[in-house]
Amino acid sequence: MVDLFSLNKLIKTALEEDLGMGDITTNSTVPRGKRISGNFIAKAPGVLCGMDIAKAVFAYIDEGITLTSIFEDGQSVAAGDIIATIEGNAANVLIGERLALNLMQRMSGIATNTFKSVAKVQGTAAKILDTRKTTPGLRLLEKYAVRTGGGYNHRFSLSDGVLIKDNHIKAAGLPTTFLNLFTLLCVDETRITGTVCPARFFLLD
Fold it and tell me: 43-75: per-residue pLDDT in tens?
């Protein structure tokens, strides 16, 4: 799961972006103090992800809002399933709904696609790993979604490990055959001597 401090920083930034100077439509149309209730309904089948994130969004805005989950992260849902119910101050629910839905939709999409990829290699020794090609500011959430879909996280940042790609080879002035040669050496070393190849992962890009 994502740590609360990092999550609240993300929520604060996202709400500031979305609210601007305030929700002028809600403020001018919805009576103060009015309470509402509603349902979160899945529009397509998939793997749910982001339920706790949505709860954190509404709790950040108004701790009096109650979001009750019917499905939890990692569970499969069908189109039309009610995945959660919500009740609380109408204005505050409306303020948080778009952010909560945006995050849940994106995370559920990632979890669903990861689940499909994992299913394709089921029965083999292969593992599905993610990359750093994430949405700026959403890396922790998107990598959590990969784990929810059954995948594995690779590097969270550039400091987590060496990954030599063609752009490094070109920038360093190395011959373009360097990576192909390194790959062949790894294969030959493993096949001939039985020793473990020094490269733990290969990026298929």
Answer: 999 999 999 999 999 999 999 999 999 999 999
